[in-house]
């Protein structure tokens, strides 16, 4: 029965994960009337960042419902003190999400999703530096393969661009966003687990839905109280401001289509985070790794379908001769990921013996928080890399 539930969770995670990327890109192209009285596109990366955090915060409602359905003696206590410490990774998440939202203005969705898969390169490097993580030979080889793959994927994106300058900006900002996300994941791991670096780590005995939800709460507060007011005060190109929050609200009020897709984006964020956690619970971390690889494929395929089938070239991306290079880079990326995670074992490397996982009532509560990447522990076991939100 758990396999059936796992299949449902996998399908839901893939559907919601694909929806988040496409909806985010599609919202940028919706036209509506703002405060100046003329129609324009909704190019508001900070508002999308706010919507992402709201979607993460809704995970707390899912957790609360699940807790209410459990017997009292099986409920997990809410550690408020620990949740305050999640403000730190929430700041990194905010920066990474804002950078990613800006990058999506300049790059296509397939490159955006593929580039985010290479975040494991940054995560592994930061874990070696800050968490005293020791990479094995096959892990280093996997990182090397992934580095080559991102070079190929980036080259194909830049070469096929109509505006090379804007695309270079998008690629650079997106890679910086991946680095910031990696910092967030390492911070989360430091807060969620005990590590050998005692000066840096603090255990937070909260389940992943609370971790995701509290980061959403912190991110929402930071956006509303700090980031959006600063963006409103600084001069820029959006009604004379970096981003005009009130203009964004006016555009949403004047367009039901825009409101619908913004709501769909929020729901997709919540659904992806929750479904991804249940993929690991009902199946295992290997299937979560498969999900990570399936998501960019689904995004690319649906983007091609949107272009050629559903919108007649209005939305999506076309297939060019540079797409073959991106396809080769994608396959190389998946190969490198499989090597790093020891899903694909090469005879020239030695591998640790697999550990036997015991089932318990608390398995779901102990499942690592999920993001776009697989998780890697501090010891030598080939479980895959850290954690959360997505976006």
Automatic annotation (TrEMBL):
<feature type="transmembrane region" description="Helical">
    <location>
        <begin position="113"/>
        <end position="134"/>
    </location>
</feature>
<feature type="transmembrane region" description="Helical">
    <location>
        <begin position="141"/>
        <end position="161"/>
    </location>
</feature>
<feature type="transmembrane region" description="Helical">
    <location>
        <begin position="208"/>
        <end position="234"/>
    </location>
</feature>
<feature type="transmembrane region" description="Helical">
    <location>
        <begin position="322"/>
        <end position="343"/>
    </location>
</feature>
<protein>
    <submittedName>
        <fullName>Aste57867_21223 protein</fullName>
    </submittedName>
</protein>
<feature type="transmembrane region" description="Helical">
    <location>
        <begin position="258"/>
        <end position="283"/>
    </location>
</feature>
<dbReference type="GO" id="GO:0016020">
    <property type="term" value="C:membrane"/>
</dbReference>
<feature type="region of interest" description="Disordered">
    <location>
        <begin position="359"/>
        <end position="391"/>
    </location>
</feature>
<feature type="transmembrane region" description="Helical">
    <location>
        <begin position="86"/>
        <end position="107"/>
    </location>
</feature>
<keyword id="KW-0472">Membrane</keyword>
<feature type="transmembrane region" description="Helical">
    <location>
        <begin position="290"/>
        <end position="310"/>
    </location>
</feature>
<feature type="transmembrane region" description="Helical">
    <location>
        <begin position="47"/>
        <end position="65"/>
    </location>
</feature>
<keyword id="KW-1133">Transmembrane helix</keyword>
<feature type="transmembrane region" description="Helical">
    <location>
        <begin position="167"/>
        <end position="187"/>
    </location>
</feature>
<keyword id="KW-0812">Transmembrane</keyword>
